[in-house]
Amino acid sequence: MNRIPLRPLARILQAREKGENPDAIERENLRLRHEAMRDRARARAEGRLLVLGLAFVCAFATVGARMGTMASSTPEEPRASARGAGIVAQRGDILDRDGRILATNMETYSLYAHPHQMIYPANAARELAKIFPELDAEKLEKRFTGNGKFYWIRRTMSPEQRQAVHDIGDPGLLFGPREMRLYPNGPIAAHILGGTSFGTEDVSYAEIKGTAGIEHSFDAELRDPANGGKPLQLSLDLTVQAALEQVLDGGMKLMNAKGASAVLMDVHTGEIVSMASLPDFDPNDRPHLPTSGHPDDSPLFDRSVQGVYELGSVFKIFTIGQALELGLVSPDTVVDIRGPIRWGRFRIGDDHYLGKEATVSEILIESSNIGTARIAQMIGAERQQQFLHKLGFFVPSPVELSEAAMTKPNWQTNWSDLTTMTVSYGHGMSISPLQLATAYAAVANGGRLLKPTLLKQAVPQDGERVMSEATSAIARQLLRKVVTEGTASFGEVPGYDVGGKTGSANKLKPTGGYYDDKTIATFASIFPIRDPKYALIVMLDEPSTFIYGEDRRTAGWTTVPVAAEIIRRIGPLLGLRPYVEPQRVADITLTSN
Length: 593
Prior knowledge:
The chain is α+β, with helices and mostly antiparallel strands. The protein has helices at residues 9-18, 22-72, 121-131, 137-145, 159-168, 190-193, 213-217, 219-222, 238-254, 316-326, 360-365, 369-379, 381-390, 402-405, 417-424, 433-444, 469-485, 559-570; strands at 94-95, 101-113, 151-154, 173-182, 195-201, 206-212, 232-233, 259-266, 272-278, 334-336, 341-343, 346-348, 357-359, 410-411, 429-430, 448-449, 464-465, 499-508, 514-527, 534-541, 545-547, 550-552.
């Protein structure tokens, strides 16, 4: 910056020539310099005030806009909270095929105590015992008056319980925020969903981990933060599941059965639309694993997936289907059914006399063990095993449940000619109802074995071919005749032309041999048979009903009526329009007068 000199030489010389005082020039220049400096300082101050004013205007405008946005929005509570480095990732929801919630998360609180901070521990113990009846007041008081500095009281609680604890007013009772898994439909689809438990846990957070069922199989996906809480959509239909379980439960009680299971599968996609096992449980309050007794005595046991049984005559359609496929027989082939067939100390006979010979159709319709065994002898042991391998009866079911992967079918290690005959009508080999449903779906869809799945599918599957479409069509016609003319006559449901096969097998004893008064009664069905869409397997464990003066334990008297009622109930829910089969019209001849 250039400054004007206070005593310019030219002006000083001029002033001396005129006799003026040169000091006046210096004072004038100094005054002008000070005024210039003052003007510059004032300009800088005004600029700073302007900038500061603009900053305040912007700040107040931002705050006002934010306040306006918040005032016009819907208030929401935070989804989760945690102190420090707590786990805040939310577990994804589980939905049915139509988007209805099967499992979700709910905000709740844990309750713990710092005894050293409590004022009236005895009173707090008494009040807590009133709020939580499972707690013992005396034990709580001992804990609160002991030397401990921390004590868990409850991992979760309802809002009402939290308020009641809050009203106690003791500063030593503290709450910690957390999430818990909620199953809003209670026990519906309990075995499929499984359940969860708390993993890594602190007073202010808890990690939710799957312990069984879908929750366990897809645990990593459901709690992966990268998925952002994306829901998992299953193939189940909640309304169909609820109706099926209701009818199955009523049928189990009416038939005095120990347990029951049912599997409903889409024969074109492999989707499991509904699957149930009774007795069941509420996954919101999952019981502990049993420490004694048989596994199926526990409600946690899934009879549809974990249970493997000799399912009886439902196997006969596979034997006859294979013989048809190999060209060994046709539906009208006549087979010698004189018996019993004796093999060492074993004998194979029929429940009632069917004559000396019968066609293949009659063997299935009347459920002849002898006739099926004769057909199995034509097939042979090696080819029979190859076909059963194709149907998946020698490996665990590939469905997305960890329980299925741990459940292996059972069969005779020494596959003799006797085994070939007994397996042909469902004895000597144990599989699960889910595996049976998968095989019947192959019979229904034209001969392709699909992978059963609990996940919603966008397109039909293209499975491995196990029989030709022609053989599949003949097998379906035979199954229809079993309902209209044979052992499954109670399975007729008007409008849904059901086809199926009954199976009744005495239960195996744990020590070997069979019970005389305990059976597994099964009905494997396909509907509608003219355009197959679903395969339904219904099984009752140890049913017994007193009809016409006798105790009835066979599937035709026990399981078939239950399955028919299930189809009658769920058919409309599945969107199936009832179909009236055409009847023969009387011949009319028009004549003129």
